[in-house]
Amino acid sequence: MIPSFAAENSKIDDNNNFFIGLFDGHDDQGHEIASYASKEIPAQIASKLHHQDKSPTPNEMTQIVTETFRNVDANAPFIGGGCTAMAVIKIGSTLYLANTGDSTQFIAIYHPPSTLVEEKSSHNERYIHNMTRPTSEQLNLQGSISIHHQNKLHKANFPEEKSRIENLGGRIHIPPKHPMGSRVIARSTTHHEDVGLAMSRSIGDREWTAVGVIPDPDVQVVNLEEFWNTNNVITKDSKVFIVLGSDGLFDTRRVEFVAKHLAYGFFESFKSDGEIAEQMLTVGKKLVNMASPIKSEFYRDDISFVAKVLEF
Question: I want to staple 161 with a disulfide (CB 3.0 to 4.6 A). Which of 61, 73, 190, 200 is the partner?
């Protein structure tokens, strides 16, 4: 648990602080590295915070998160594999969004309509429960969505990433027609051949560390009071939620597509508190279904995602 601190003029409530992480493994033992990182990163951050006698400043917290990612990478077992790492941490009125790799996270705001039309709601409910593919049906969200603080993906074709890797003697393959499919090439001691890594930053990929693949996260700092005020969340009766998802979800679907489906489940599905968990599982299955190739013989990447309504 993220600890509470006695600030000069306020008390940060333990119950309102949280840590959410998502770790997407790759290569033969990537699931083991992801499991290791999923335990060590929150535990080490919590340990560092417990030794603080006051709430950390944004700069201090950014340093804590960065040092933790580096330490977990340095001590990850060398078993052939690695993982991406995302963390969303709320401490008081500040939200930290950290990312290493090519997974995606963002904050979404749901803007409700003046009224919900029953006919459209009935259509959406049928759509969500229909797992048949292909389908011409689409979700008709009655409210609207805006996307904020979406992270930058760490891909080797981006100038900053490319420069760092090439300066260390690393090799990069960039497909001319699909530059986002770039790969960092290194000799794998596990596979005894050259292997291409799909991201320019990761946890645990030891052979790629020598050629500039680093664990350092980008950390966005969001002042929630300013965010609420700037976007008129209260006056417009809007709702805010956060989403973290692996690349398998976003390879074929835009962030707006994902956000609209989750917003429907959270805010337009007319489910009671006892039914909302089951409804969100159905929405999750629908998203996986819609992100997957129609033909079963085509490759489908592992898909993991987390969504949480954010209250402030």
Answer: 200
